Amino acid sequence: MTEEAREAFAKASLGAENTAYDVIARLDPEYFEKLKGLYVDGTFGREGALPRQTKELIMIGICCALLRPRGIRVHTERALALGASPKEVLEAMEVAAIPGGMPGLWAGVETLQEILKAKGQEFK
């Protein structure tokens, strides 16, 4: 079952790298299976009222407000992969500055610029 869970996480990741999943799967396969249920089946892999792109934009805002650089990067990469424009990503970051403060916005903007630069894109 763990291989099935690994495949589900790989599909849900949309190419954004998070090697922590591999470590958890290896060290605690039982927990990894349960994590799949929450993360993949219950949230990002589920077709609910919100489209996946919207869920990723929400996560960007939350990660900016909480100043979680890894989350900012992963969810920004995923939102862009799902078709969100850089302007939409920026706006999610701007909204997060209300509860989280300017440092989260700065971290988000810098991360967005790095991702776009790595893709050979410019912010427009």
Characterise the protein shown here.
The protein is an all-alpha fold and 124 residues long. It folds into two domains: 43 residues; 67 residues, AhpD-like. The protein is 77% helix and 0% strand. It has seven helices and no strands. Helix 4 packs across helix 7. The radius of gyration is 15 Å and the shape is globular. The model has no long low-confidence stretch (mean pLDDT 91).
CATH homologous superfamily annotation of the largest domain: AhpD-like
> Which CATH-level-2 architecture of the largest domain?
Up-down Bundle
Oligomer: single chain
Shape: globular
Helix content: over 70%
Mean pLDDT: 91
The major sheet is characterized as: none
The overall number of domains is: 2
Poorly predicted regions are none
Radius of gyration: 15 Å
> Total strand count, please?
0
The termini sit apart by 44 Å
Number of helical elements: 7
Strand content: under 5%
Order of helices and strands: HHHHHHH
CATH class of the largest domain: Mainly Alpha
- Secondary-structure-based class equals mainly alpha
**CATH topology description of the largest domain:** AhpD-like
